[in-house]
Amino acid sequence: MTSKTVLVTGATGLLGRQVVKAFASHGWTVKGTGFSRADGSSILKVDLSNPAEIEKVLDDVKPQVVVHCAANRFPDKVDADPEGTRRLNVDATRAIARRCARRAAVLVYISTDYVFPGRPGDAPYEADARPAPTNLYGVTKLDGETAVREEFEGAGEGGEGGEAEARSGVGVVLRVPVLYGEADRNAESAVNCLMDVVERAAQGERGRVRMDHWALRYPTNTEDVARVCYDVASRYLAEKDKSSLPRVLQFSSEDKYTKYEICQLFGEIKGLPIDRIEPNTEGNDPTAAVQRPYDCHLSTRALRDLGIEVATQDFVGWWRRECRAFRH
After folding, report:
1. Where is the RmlD-like substrate binding domain (predicted)?
2. Residues 92, 112 share a domain
3. Are residues 129 and 155 located together in one domain of the fold?
4. Pairwise CA distance, residues 55 & 52, whole Å
5. Are residues 77 and 192 in the same domain?
């Protein structure tokens, strides 16, 4: 059997680590890109803002599939560094997509539910719903989606990739919501970090904390997302006529919580009081730099139509097991 190779960008990150594991568990040759945590062997040091370095790693690794996880994905950090964010979320994505199209590779680009406005009553959003991001993070990820589409369409229309899109590979967008899972540090995840908030509040370290009890979130485990990345890549790679395959897919848990409800859950699991954490039901502050959507729940219909499993781990059950394992 011919060995298959995947290149995972952001392979040392919260999602990237699980994507590496998912492909490796199926016998693929897996290489990742990183920067500060690259080991030079399985994780190659690549500056994704440098197209020449992207070119070199693709030439060296020769992957049939690229899963592009690397991104600036924290909205507040995005607003603090808009130029750096655009270089990574948009420019690097375009450079990767262009080179994947030329090499007839399958590119899975990880995007976000924040491409949608999240107005009350709009969700769930189908994959073909009209995006309208409300903050810069969503804008840059949507621009990344556009870059993927344009580069593969350009290659399929007679660019360097060949005479047809089937020959130039295929670029597929996979939108996901807020993620949680196994982490080196809780700060890696906007969900995991709430465990730190609960513990510090219980110890009286931070005084009283106001926690959002307005916006709805659908926390999804990184292991489940990684499995879907593998299933999508395998399906798209095997399909000879890629013209009928959808270019935008969405994956999400059905578990629904506000951030305050997650804190309540973590307090119950850890046996900690959360009386110093106050629910904030006011919604977005109109003067705030980052506006967050109310409900961006993603429909998984397009994945189900492909026959790809969309079941997810139970949020409460996963955290109960995680906390028991930590105690022992």
Report:
1. 5-308
2. yes
3. yes
4. 5
5. no
Give the whole-angstrom CA distance, residue 144 versus residue 172. Answer: 11
Find out whether 295 and 252 touch, Cβ atoms under 8 Å.
no
CATH number of the domain within which 260 lies:
3.90.25.10
What tens digit of pLDDT does each residue of 258-275 get?
Answer: 999 999 999 999 999 999
Both 118 and 140 in one domain: the answer is yes
Buried b (16+ CB within 10 A) or exposed e, 19-41: bbbbbeeeebbbbbbbeeebeee
Residues with pLDDT less than 50, the chain: 1, 157-166, 328
Which structural domain, as residue segments, surrounds residue 207?
186-217+255-284+292-297+314-327
- Does some domain include residue 308? no
Instruction: Please count the CA atoms within 13 angstroms of the CA of 261 that sit on its side-chain side.
Output: 14
Asked whether residue 195 falls in the same domain as residue 235, the answer is no
Query: What are the residues whose beta carbons fall under 8 Å from the beta carbon of 199, sequence distance 6 or more?
Result: 270, 272
Residue 198, in any domain of the structure = yes
Q: Tokens representing 55?
A: 């070119």
In a domain, 306, yes or no: no
- The DSSP call for residue 277 is E
> Number of structural domains, the chain?
2
Classify residue 304: in a domain, yes or no: no
CB 217 within 8 A of CB 177: yes
| pLDDT tens profile 38-94 | 787 899 999 999 999 999 999 999 999 999 999 998 888 999 999 999 999 999 999
Identify whether residues 171 and 237 lie together within a single domain.
yes
Q: CA of 130: how far to CAs of 125, 163, 300, in Å?
A: 9, 30, 16
Q: How many CB atoms lie within 10 A of CB 137?
A: 26
Q: Which DSSP string corresponds to 127-167?
A: TTSPP--SSHHHHHHHHHHHHHHHHHHHHHTTSTT-SSTTT
Q: Which amino acid is at 199?
A: E
d(CA 324, CA 271): 12
Is pTM beyond 0.90? Reply is: yes
Nearest to 135 by CA among 89, 187, 191, 67: 89
